[in-house]
Fold these 4 entries.
Entry 1:
Amino acid sequence: MRQDATTHRKATKQAESSRGVAIVASSRDNGLRPSEWLCVTSGARTIRERLMKRQFLLVSAALSLAVLCALWFAPPAQARGNATGSARNPARVAWKFAASGDSRNCGDVVMPAIARGVKKNGALFYWHLGDFRKMISADEDIQHLPAYRSLPLSISEYQQIAWTDFINSQISPFGTLPVYLSIGNHEMVPPKTRAQFLTQFSHWLDAPNLHAQRLRDDPADRKPKTYYHWSKAGVDFISLDNATRDQFNEKQLAWFEKALRSDSADRRIRTIVVGMHEALPDSIAENHSMNQSPTGIESGRRVYADLLRARDQGHKYVYVLASHPHYFLDGVFNTDYWRQHGGVLPGWIVGTAGAERYALPEEATSARAAKTNVYGFLLGTVSPGGEIRFTFQRVKESDIPAPVAQRYTSDFVHWCFAENSAAR
């Protein structure tokens, strides 16, 4: 051990001596004293180490910036199928929403069960696609309320209470769950008007998020309208008004196309869902849709073409929901017309919230799915990437809450399920 230590000390001294000799030699070559040359070489070494450290930091910063730029400006991912989508920072978890329309006739019986099913499935909101009450004559459910069974209402008395009944019997069961309302043609049965609709349902049409969105779109737009939109977790929901045959008018079209341009330019928006009462023209349900007026055909085709551009050029997922016919259809735009005029958008009809059920059209064989003599709602599950999977959730007679059956009688509840149909 002592010998090893002695040997190590000798080697160290020899190395130091050699280094000293080298310093002396170099100092002579440069005309410097050894102490001066040692100072110069030590300073150079320090400068070189600092430069290397700074270079390392600059390279690290450049790499970090490159990664951030790649994430920010990356081209949108595209998914072909029913639609094309793109996203940055997608939602981290899937979430759900629900929709259906046409709750006249037996809606006071069916809608409480729909509300229960919507909440049970974890949907974040419910979207009613129009036709709350019959309005041209008293709904059968109102006629079977205890107060009116023996003393029927006159038409004017009925029309005065119909919308209040809708709020109390159909919206209230949702509790604190947000409800969005689209206007249907039965909301425009005289003497009702759009102005009355806006007044009666201002609580929902001017909800805080809708009010805020309207002002973001136009700071001067302070009054609610019968058409509007709202965004949630990368999905823009657009509710349109085609309740009368003069729609869509130019004012609504200009608003809609502005909203679409904004969505197409916004990388945070991955998906567009458009809802309305009547289906856009040239669908499987064209005999009960916007095809019933020249304005409806022209303006509806324009909206459809706008949505095709949002899908193909804006790289968004696009889905179209409607009610009006009282049945369920999945694939309503799978027609020769749209296959030859730009392509088939994924579309649904879900007029299944309590109205008298209709027979399916002959063309329903072209749909992905078609059902009548059913009640229920459409449940949309939004994936983290923005694609939406829709499933029909059927409501059965056994789903009607006991207090509702007691209020209207079990016989009337059974009538709603067995007899409220023109498709027998």
Entry 2:
Amino acid sequence: MDPDIQAHLEEVYLNDKNFSSVKSRNDPDTLPQSAMTIMDYEGHILGIVGGRGEKTENRSLNRAWSSPRQPGSTMKPIGAYAPALEYNLITYSSYIKDEPIETVIDGETRKWPKNASGSYSGANTTVQNAIQRSLNTVAVRVVQELTPQKSFDFLTNRLHLSHLVDSGSSNDMNYSALALGGCLYGATTTEMAAAYVPFGNLGHYYAPTTFVKVTDQHDEVVLEAKEPEVAMGEDTANIMNHMLQTVVTSGTGSAADFGSMPLIGKTGTTSESVDRWFVGGSPYYIAACWFGFDNPETLRASGNPALNIWKKVMEPIHEDLEDQDFPDTEMVTYRRYCTQTGLLATVNCPSTSVGWYKTNYLPACTSHEGRLASELDKPVRNPVPSNSSGGDDEDDEPSENTVTSAPAETSSAESTTTSAPETS
């Protein structure tokens, strides 16, 4: 733990003015709750708060550790894009249709999902733009290509999400859970912060811990933090980092931006706005914040309350820190791609933009044959993408077989399966 970070985190959570004024429609005396976990990129928990307001009892519910909730679109980077990038199914600029797939919902074949805007373009869009705008359609198509099994294995074996369910009449082996975060139970803020750690340290997963090591009176080590695991290639992690920076510079997470250091981030909203999330970080820290009611109900709040809390915590703790960049790798190259095909540009491509690519996977444009355009010097700061159009609505649509979150009081309560709504 970092005493200064913990103290500031608790100060923010003690002040009701830092929270949305929304109240429960079922019980006006009930306020929404929140949880937040801050970690460094070696898995050390530097600050953790499991609820708002003054702590009135010891060993009370710590939502940050014990209460999984549906993560919404914060699942997209870890359940869809990172594994697909790891297996070379996509690149930064791969073109994927912004269009729903056909799937069976309540016994009927339907087109699903829509985006938060309630519509879709039907046009090709790059993976980077889909992440920046949080497009549901593209994330689902990526997991369809990846397969739910590979997505599930990546999330549970490499990123150690422990509350996903792979069997039974209700489970998470579906596009709703794995692409859009409409899970049976979900994840805690501690799990989500740890799952994003590899994006800031070139691919290593560290089990969350509050200690480095424990010794006895003879200075013998009796307990030591686990060694890191390679969750993904450093090229995958680095490219994901660049794409997640565009969420903050010009996408759904732009309200989180502060200072001059690069930031990564991803917003999340579950069906009917029951849960709001923001997971984001600087080169120093990664933090996950959740906001919602203990007994799930729709949040009628403007903006993203979780993002607002995240910023109130993260901005001040960076005030006295020197500017840093995220770590770089020679396994990633900065190159032009053809805007007509999304493939790496040749010297004959008439229209190009720029992106980040694995040095060992450079699929060249097939419509304009010729030698690949030369590698470019990497910019000091990630530029705003030329295709930037702001974010789609922050709201997401995790609803193929939407499952409401388990109440926060328990991580094992039965959840209720509901039919899939058309909008979020």
Entry 3:
Amino acid sequence: MITIFFLVWTLGTVLLTLNVFKPLAARRHSSFPAILISYVTGWLIGDLLPQWILFNVGILLLFSFSDIFSHPIGWGGLIVHLTGWCALTLRLWIIFNSPERLDKKMEQQLGNSWKNAVSNFKPPESIQDINWHSWLNPNTVFEDPRIEIIHDQEFHQENDFKLRLDIYRPRGSRKKKLPAILQIHGGAWISGSKRQAAFLMSHMAAQGWVCFSVVHRFSPEIVFPEHLIDIKRALNWIKKNALEYGVDKDFVVSTGGSAGGHLASLMALTQNRPEFQPGFEKADTGIQGCISLYGVYEFSEPFNEETLYPAKAKLLKIVCGGTPDSKPENYQQITPGNWISSETPPFLLVQGDTDALISVNEAKKFFSDLQAQNTQNSAILSLPLVEHAFDIFPTLTAQCIVPTIERYLIMLHENYINSKGER
């Protein structure tokens, strides 16, 4: 019986390791739970590798109390486990060496604007530079003494439901007109947490930015565009209270991941549109740039035979209240590409090549649409071997990629300052 358990465990770890490099659940044929399991296991095992190895060592130690390792099958299984750990370590080594390649890609797309931008936070250049403490204990991002976090500030009440946001800002700063980030969480429009992207927000707050992490109501209680309207209410509140929090209301960048990346994109693309601002139609909802991480850009395609994605189509029926045939206006409104214009602000799109939930082709097509309108200072990064939600925890992957995002934010602000002639 012990042998059977050992073989099952070993086979399971082989499949989980392979899933990190290529998601085993195909979007075209798999159910939503299968795709979700493929994503979660690939993300956690790939990015939380130290914890995964420690967990495996513990399991193997339990097996060592039997006589499994006195047989060839036990030693063979041990070699399989070690091989899997080596493969996963090699993946992280490739990601560890990616910042220089990312820098070159950004310079090719942005030129001197990128070269002149400088962030206080750098990706690790050696093993010693890796922040092992935060990798093993993600909660350390909330303990930075240079920042303060204000939790659960109410910005709107809808019936009995109160919408709240968290504020990350420099501790003790008395400066005025600080640049701001409007951060929108992911969660497929049906869930989510304000704690997402805390790594990015804590870093930017330490560099003199004020970051607002907002929430919206969830489907199925609401259908689109109510999610977007809630975020616009948050932006309206931020601009009304800009003086209190030392924010430059004329410079706000929207950021978000997954469904939050989609909503961040729409915030940048639908500025001051009265149909999305009921009761505050004349409020300024201007956005000066957008960073969308592993965002969602295609909405009718999952229903088409050529690009079928049944799990996503099922979710969109809930979010939009029907199909593209029954709710054509909702699908027209929810699709970011329909709102691109000559007034579109700069975009940075970041997408992992091995994302189990969203194809990198979505980001590439959306970026092509942005280029067709000659959107200035925009860029796209396609990340080899990187999974969905790579930035949620301060893992090695996040430590290597997020500094590039931070530098892009600083570049946007420097361009804004220069355009106003304040330098």
Entry 4:
Amino acid sequence: MRLSCVAVQPVARAGETLVTQALLTIQAPPRSAGAAMPTALALVLDRSGSMDGPAFDRARAAMRAAMDTMRPEDYLCVVASGRRPELLIPARPVASRTGFRALTNSVSCQDWGPVSSALECAVETLQQVPSEVWPRRALLLTDGWLGAPEHARLRRAAELAASVGVRLDVVLCGSEGDLLALYELARLTLGACRCVNSTEEAHRTGHRWAEDLTQVAASQLELTVASTEGCELTPMAPCRGTRLPDLALGSQTGVGLRLRCDPRAPGVYRMGQVELAYRNASTGIPAVARADIIMEFADHGAQGLEDADDPEVARHLLLDAELESLGQVLSEWRPDRKSAGSAASVLRERAGALQAAGLTETAAMVWKAEAAASSPSRDDPRPFIIEAIARAAEERWLASRGRGQESAPVVGVLGGVGHAVDPNAL
């Protein structure tokens, strides 16, 4: 895992209070370093009466596709809801698929039973697989018609799953009219939800979902930020005690940070430290990456806000505002309708402001992020946002150089054993 942190304001003016932002980027290993360890998957099937018909056919199609995609060394279990949850297949390696396919053809709907109990059973079963089997995920197949009393129980079951490192996702097998159920499930389960409207789409979803398990680079990502004396370093969205999404091989994610520091004499200072705890999917072993975030103070640092009438300072302030907004969207993105709509609105405004200011390349990236968030499938806009933030940070640095600043943005490089970086060596 490689982490880097780019400060928006590359060099601060000595003797003045510093208020700025930074982007922490988490980069996974390339795809060529594929996961060698087996994974574990629990299929949780809602077989209440409302599932009878096309919804159940879609659920079975997704189950079969997931089973067929898994490798022989991967672990699989199947749990069905009912008056009591039924462990149809205990967790075991997928060496022989005959029994699994026979089960998907024979299972049928029954009377209503709490899906939350079936999910808790699946989580308990996943905890019994060998410790080196990682990541562990549960896939809930339902039409979303759970009833209000079940909502609180489902939320507790999802929190239980998260507490032991089991990621929960949902495939909604109902119709297009069940989108409200999709948004509710996304909120309750703390996971990703996808609505499928045909058996062919359900098959593709199950296949891709199981295939993605083998591409996980790190799971259980948990970020902790510590500030030094006289500094206040905080994530733009609360990260302490919460886990970031799993990171796929070759991908990256980012977290926006706010930085406030008391006046300092000229020099290079340590502002704080970030610590990323995660489980390495290629070894199954927990790991920690740490690094210092550093900042340079100089007599020729960025001008203060008293020069706001200066066109160059106005450009600085515009870029600061854009970076703040983009970082907020990056940290708070969720694949539900309310979050996606809010993100698309903010991104639309920011793209217009950047375009009006002549920052066309950065604006183009923000427009791409807005299009992703606005799409019917609510595609993930974060890769475009990260690219836009990187370009805006570069513009901010170029604007600073126009005012006599010669130093490049300070970048903290993290590895398995993080260390401070000399900015003069960058």
